[in-house]
Amino acid sequence: MRQACPILLVLLIASAALAVTPHAATPTDTLFTWQTYGQDARVRVQTFASDDDKRPHTIVVDELASNNDLVTDDVRYFVDTLGRSLGLDPTQATFVFRFNGQSFEEDAGDGKTLLLRATFNRTKSGTMGSPSWRLLTRDELANLTDRALY
Q1: pLDDT at 5
Q2: Position 95 confidence tier, pLDDT thresholds 50, 70, 90
Q3: Count of CB atoms within 10 A of residue 97's CB?
Q4: Among 44, 46, 56, 63, whose Cα sits 20 to 30 Å from the Cα of 8?
């Protein structure tokens, strides 16, 4: 009976680790809808595991032409809402906002792509702070997504 206890303990620790990192093993790709200023907004969201201990998630957000406003117009509210939906703290993720021709016209080709990296921290009061923005290259996006996206 004593030998079963260490095995049970290992199983409990492993299941707790999985509960803390819901997207660590499998990338996800979904449309995310939220309420903003009296209208629904929608973006494509892809999540990836990261090797970064401080930010173990990479979240790629694609703007859709059907939105009336850019997702970046209210980005702090968006990442907080998305984080609650995904079951993770946005301060533990790297966000990549991707814009191309299809972000503005549904029938447009991909064309040139703008990649913006954003990271967030919370203020002393616990609210989402302003993002730290940086332009990314396609190679940097590939590295953040373990070569799943280029």
Answers
A1: 46
A2: very high
A3: 24
A4: 56
Find the DSSP H helices in 21-132: 75-86
CA atoms within 13 A on the CB side of 60: 26
* pLDDT at 11 (0 to 100): 36
pLDDT one-digit tens code per residue, 14-61 = 344 434 444 344 678 999 988 877 778 889 999 998 877 888 899 999
CA angle at 113 for the pair 108 and 118, rounded to the nearest 5°: 130
Contacts of 1 (CB under 8 A, 6+ apart): none
Check if the beta carbon of residue 58 is closer than 8 Å to that of residue 143. no
Phi, psi of 28 (to 5 degrees): -120, 155
CA neighbor of 114 nearest in space, from 130, 131, 136: 136
Domain boundaries, the chain: 23-144
Burial class (CB in 10 A: 0-12, 13-18, 19+), 38: exposed
In which residue are the tokens 């332009």 written? 135
> b/e string for 6-27 if b means 16 or more Cβ within 10 A?
eeeeeeeeeeeeeeeeebeeee
